[in-house]
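Hello Y.,

Per our agreement to keep a running log of every chain we model this quarter, I'm adding this entry. I've kept the format consistent with earlier entries: sequence first, then predicted structure.
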Amino acid sequence: MKKDREIGFIGLGIMGNPMAQNLMRAGFRLHICSRNAAVEQELKNIGGIVHKSPAAVAAASDIIITMLPDTPQVQEVALGTNGIIEGVRDGALYIDMSTIDADAERNISRQLKQKNVESLDAPVSGGQEGAINGTLSVMVGGSATAFQRALPVLEAVGKRVIHIGDTGAGQVAKSCNQIATALATQGVVEAFTLATRWGIDLARLREAMLGGFASGKALEIAGKRMIEKTFTPGFTLKLYSKDLRIANNVARDAGLELPGAAMLQKEMEILVGREMGGLDFSALIEIFEY
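Predicted structure for the entry above:
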């Protein structure tokens, strides 16, 4: 088996599971552990090797990837009891593809460096569809050497893989992405709300807008979901709310206030409080009552 063909993957949710499958299709041998026995079995059936802990996954892997919901989970898996740090091989590479706080990413990197392990933060954009199709956009922070080593792995899950800068830069880039996407979606929400007040057919409005400067993913994908009221998650409101919390924290650390991002974080938190956090973020339109 050639160097860097043994890949550990921890975090097999709606994004991680299809990403892991794409890695196997690309010829990598996958080492996994999960709290979800059904997902473990699904991946085992197609060649995944199941382990009992992140430490055991790390011990078997040249490169270890995490794709987890939030900062605390990444910290636990990377640095906690039976975590990656307890089993990781000398000279291995760690890639965190979660969306978490940049400061936490830098701390994890410093601690793994003491084990002679380089780290990359490589959050993604593209939602579940991008994860399934292997067309994610990957924003990478870390050394140029580590980036080049990781590139064949990252290209198995992403169509656009960009080295942004040093450790933490990938997370800051993801915050920028989430701000722009959320504000574009809010524009569609407000446009559709106004049109509804005037009795305008939203499908016709969307068709007209797609031919002009308003055209974009927010209108094309989220707008269609808003019209059809189909909010099966590609990316949940709960996770998006978390991402905007991180983005607003990054902005404050830089001495900035971002009023649009702050407003949208509050709107998403309201919907999460209404037990809508498991819906797709296009359900943001439900903040307005027609």
